[in-house]
């Protein structure tokens, strides 16, 4: 067709071509990217480690490598310990859904038993921090002391009331509202991504327990002052004054002006 | 000689005859006061003042009432607030802070919030009132600016207003720094950083102000004196002057039927305006109280006590300081240079100690600059519609745009987390927008104003387009235009003739070239910039002319010329 040949040289052709290429790539990626391959029934597996390895191979090896040695997209998992696995899988961060600057919290895809199995497998590769005992993760410590520790060590990233905050280049410290005590402990212990590690020599298990108690106190969400506007400080307060506040005043002024004298 | 009794001295004094002859009790008291103070004359003068009615004239009142409300609630807070950095262990009823070491200032603010009956509500009213005070000041300023109300003879009042706006901001910042929570301490720390950037004397200045290094024990009591004594006194004083000048100048009004540069159409202060204004005070109080009881503000217990080693994500100042914070966030890092062992952080100096006063200097200077450009020395009591002063309106919108860019930049972290964007991209976006945005805003606003000007002229001269197509007997088509009713029309007709543009032609009246002075030529250039596109509103004379030269089929109703000329 003559017209088609002519159109091939049209300046927009390049864009159309690019667009088509991007679309196919994107669709292909959606299919290829790791998804919830329904975890194989673990009943047949002899030990937890083997069951964990099976789950790992099916869901994680594409990024972390078949020996968890790490790959182009993901770090080695040797020595990260069961605590890291429990945190990453328990908060739904792993398996990572899409590449990005940071693995976001997602609905979790595996039950606790499967997570423990993968944890056992990773722990068998090299020694690393274990899942903390419930003695320290259920709260019941000193909230006020925990608050002091929290403000010095965590508030600069997570905000004084745990609302979260921005880090550079699209990274962020997430909100800490409604996070399980165990995961808070594990986050401190393993330091996911941009978060520093708080070893037991920095923050003792009791310190961590107090921090958890403090965050649980925050979670109760008691706002003695009324509706809290997200608890993120002066920005929403200013926005509120500029919209709702002055808006009401102007409406009242107009209403009063309309009133016959 | 015998006539020189006390009565004799009063001979011919008509007041003595009327002394306390009022029949009512209130009248009797008023008479008693008047006999001793002579207030009646002044009161009569004030009460017979006439105020025009328009909602935008109430913005200043919102500011006034919010100020009064913050003053009253502030006094309440002083009953319990302890302005001291002395250390105590908290033992009040807020469990999550029990046993924590803190300053007395913070502990007493917690005490007000949790253990004083109604204390939290009063604190919230004080703070919401403070925010709305500054919001209302800014809105009031916009009204004055965009209607040209600051023109002669009201320039001094514009200057007073500018000062009030700046002082309100400083007053707010001082208050925000008092409770000594993590956020307010961070704000103070930032302010101390700004002062350190002053060349040469910076560190000495900080030592002087803080009585040593940061934070020290001196700053809270000092800020307290400034916040509850010094600044409120200056603000109230300036505010009184502001109001007196409004009385002296009389209030401006929008053009409309019967309104001229020489009269004021509206209600007398007594009783109508007073009743309305008094009612409005309670409305403003009610709105602020409502907001304060439903929405928490500055939940200091969430932030914890100030600790120089801690800081919280999302540290922002109250909104009115936001633009300076934003300027600092946008300032690139290379603005810090060091030579000869001295570090010179001029980026921070520019973004804070230079920017803050600069904004107010520019604002204060504007009326005088405009007057110099236009050469307009007339008195103005009729407001200009913003669209009719296209260049001024465009300048205003451009300035607001620049301000808003800085302001939004102060929330770059909140924008990043809430819109899932990269804070670095946002920062670059705002940096570029700071320069491009105002230009764009200027151009767009000007276009809109000019379009509206054209539409107004069209409407006044030819009436409203009805959309009805009429076919004449000889087959021609035209759209029927419906004349505006007279009332509407007067809002669109100018109240005053356009400025006689003092453009220097460069020749004297004999047509001989005369070298214009450099400043004159510069002025003429600016005046051209100011007026070149303006499409002046229809003058009454033009209107009459238009009606007499018979616009054929465009059915413009005749108006009696008597009515029009009576406007002069
Ligand atoms: C009209 C201008 C005023 C403004 C804009 C203003 C603003 C503020 C602000 C923003 C705060 C922080 C409040 C908080 O969140 O707790 C504050 C605190 C305070 N203000 Fe004012 N204020 C004004 C007038 C006054 C006056 C006249 C007084 C006293 C006579 C006063 C007494 C106090 C006290 C004692 C505090 C600290 C107590 C506390 O924070 O609960 N204020 N002010």
TrEMBL record, chain A:
Keywords associated with the record: Cell membrane, Electron transport, Heme, Iron, Membrane, Metal-binding, Repeat, Respiratory chain, Signal, Translocase, Transmembrane, Transmembrane helix, Transport
Bilayer-spanning residue ranges: 239-257
Heme in keyword set: yes
Top class in the EC scheme: translocase
Gene3D superfamilies associated with the record: Cytochrome c-like domain
Membrane topology type: Multi-pass membrane protein
Main location: membrane
Pfam families: Cytochrom_C, Cytochrome_CBB3
InterPro entries reported in the protein's UniProt record: bc1_cytC-su, Cyt_c-like_dom, Cyt_c-like_dom_sf, Cytochrome_c_Oxidase_Subunit
UniProt signal peptide: 1-32
Parts forming coiled coils: none
UniProt-listed Enzyme Commission number(s): 7.1.1.8
Location in or out of the cell: Cell membrane
Catalytic activity: a quinol + 2 Fe(III)-[cytochrome c](out) = a quinone + 2 Fe(II)-[cytochrome c](out) + 2 H(+)(out)
Ranges where the Cytochrome c domain occurs: 47-126, 141-219
Entry keyword Electron transport: yes
PANTHER family named in the record: CBB3-TYPE CYTOCHROME C OXIDASE SUBUNIT FIXP, CYTOCHROME BC1 COMPLEX CYTOCHROME C SUBUNIT
UniProt subunit comment: The cytochrome bc1 complex is composed of a cytochrome b (QcrB), the Rieske iron-sulfur protein (QcrA) and a diheme cytochrome c (QcrC) subunit.
Name of the molecule in the record: Cytochrome bc1 complex cytochrome c subunit
Organism, as annotated: Arsenicicoccus piscis
TrEMBL record, chain B:
Recorded catalytic activity of this chain's protein: a quinol + 2 Fe(III)-[cytochrome c](out) = a quinone + 2 Fe(II)-[cytochrome c](out) + 2 H(+)(out)
One Pfam family matching this protein: Cytochrom_B_N_2
EC number(s) from the headed UniProt entry: 7.1.1.8
Region (Disordered): 1-22
InterPro entries (UniProt xref): Cyt_b/b6_N, Cytb/b6-like_sf, Di-haem_cyt_TM
Domain Cytochrome b/b6 N-terminal region profile, chain residue ranges per copy: 29-255
Name listed for the protein in its UniProt record: Cytochrome bc1 complex cytochrome b subunit
Organism: Arsenicicoccus piscis
Gene (name only): qcrB
